Amino acid sequence: MPTTPPNHGPATGENPYAEPRARGLTRAQRELIAFVAALGVGLLVMPFLIWLAGNRVLGPYVHGDNPRAGPWSLFADYVVGLAHGSAVFWAVALGPAALLYLVRGFLMLWRALPQARGG
Q: CB-based burial of residue 12 (10 Å sphere; 0-12 exposed, 13-18 middle, 19+ buried)?
């Protein structure tokens, strides 16, 4: 006798993968996750990307008496700059989040333009 497989989806029959809201997250929670992810990229990934680009274009990173310091030396200097509150280092850290919200703002404006023209 064949049996039907168990339904592991929501009771309403909606696709749990259709929208992020299906996971039960509010808009504020999704925004917080996006901001934390962008901040994580700014804090942890950007220094290494900067080192990589600088190493290829400008040459090796010089740190004190070490003429060929690696990416970890740059990362240590980056963390010290953040701790001292340097605006330049914080601009790098917040850059991915700012770019994310700038793109989102332009997309919201782009979507609102046809409504403003009346069609």
A: exposed
For 28, phi then psi, to 5°, come to -60, -40
Residue 22 in contact with residue 15, Cβ under 8 Å? Answer: yes
Element (H, E) at 62: strand 61-63
Helix (H) / strand (E) containing 69: strand 66-69
- pLDDT, tens digit (0-9, with 9 covering 90-100), for 48-105: 999 999 999 999 888 888 887 899 999 999 999 999 999 999 999 999 999 999 999 9
CA 74 to chain CA mean position, Å = 21
Q: Rounded CA gap, 47 and 4, in Å?
A: 53
Tokens of 1: 């006798």
The domain ranges of the chain are: 45-117
The CA distance from 38 to 41, in Å, is: 5
Pairwise CA distance, residues 79 & 49, whole Å: 15
- In this predicted structure, the answer to whether residue 12 has a pLDDT above a threshold of 90 is no
